[in-house]
Write a structure and sequence with these properties.
Helix 2 packs across helix 3. The strands form three sheets. Strands 6-7-10-9-8 form a five-stranded mixed β-sheet, with helices on both faces. Helix content is 26%, strand content 25%. Strand 4 and strand 5 form a beta hairpin. The chain has 260 residues and is α/β, with parallel strands linked by helices.
């Protein structure tokens, strides 16, 4: 039978094997952070505001930039099922492209991404099933961004994760203060698993490029703590463009209660 004689998978060459220390993940995260402003300001990028469309655009842009950055061994994919938590989907992941990557003794193949990434809009859009603290935690469902990592719903097999924040109103400083204030509220309310140690701290920022970077170390219920890198980008129109159009956003209805 022809089907019995046909080899499975790609034919013609062996996949290379690459070995990297865990610190190599910082290189990948630095790459993502360094591409944010170029993606937002790309003149060919259609103006969208929905989270899934923004993430799909970012995914395509990152893939177009990996080769020039010396990262052509990875490929980005959007809406990828979590390898451990069945039924859960990661917003964005980089994974090996045509190779096997070992990071500190753990094997990553095409089917095992190297880094889980969650994307959120700031503020949360208005909808009856949405909550204003969605970047952090939700009460009705386990759809909060940091909450998903803490509960193991996202990235339970990883020690490092990323959250990308699409800031559509307010400033980075206001959002940092708001999120850390919300963490204190959850802590005082006795919400299981939350403490002041979950707070974000600023690492870097560029006022000209309108990007900022924060970090948090978050305890998890069934795994060691995870380090989260929070990469934020100001998606509002640049000041000159905003003055010309008379608006700071492109017409998206956002939740005023979620503004910082």
């Amino acid at each position: 039978m022809l089907a019995d004689e046909t080899a499975a998978g790609p034919v013609g060459s062996l996949s290379p094997t690459l070995h990297h220390p865990s610190a190599w993940l910082e290189t990948v995260i630095d790459f993502i952070y360094g591409q944010l402003a170029g993606w937002r300001d790309d003149h060919g990028r259609p103006p969208v505001t929905a989270e899934t469309r923004l993430t799909a655009q970012l995914c395509q842009f990152l893939n177009s930039a990996t080769s020039a950055a010396g990262l052509d061994m990875i490929v980005f994919q959007a809406e990828v099922p979590d390898a451990v938590a069945g039924g859960r989907t990661l917003d964005l992941v980089p994974g090996p492209r045509g190779c096997v990557i070992w990071i500190d003794g753990r094997r990553h193949s095409l089917y095992d991404p190297i880094l889980p990434i969650e994307c959120k809009r700031l503020p949360t859009p208005v909808a009856k099933d949405r909550e204003r603290r969605e970047y952090l935690h939700t009460q009705k469902r386990t759809t909060g961004g940091i909450q998903r990592f803490k509960s193991g719903a996202h990235g339970s097999a990883h020690g490092v994760g990323v959250m990308i924040g699409y800031v559509q109103t307010g400033t980075f400083g206001q959002w940092l203060a708001s999120i850390n204030r919300w963490i204190r509220v959850l802590t005082r309310a006795g919400i299981a698993g939350w403490s002041h140690r979950d707070g974000l701290r600023r690492v870097a920022g560029d006022a000209t490029l309108r990007i900022a970077r924060h970090r948090s170390k978050n305890a998890r219920t069934s795994a060691a703590p995870i380090t989260l890198h929070h990469l934020w980008i100001d998606m509002r129109a640049a000041p000159a463009a905003a003055a010309a159009t008379g608006r700071a956003t492109n017409g998206t209805k956002l939740d005023p209660r979620g503004s910082p």
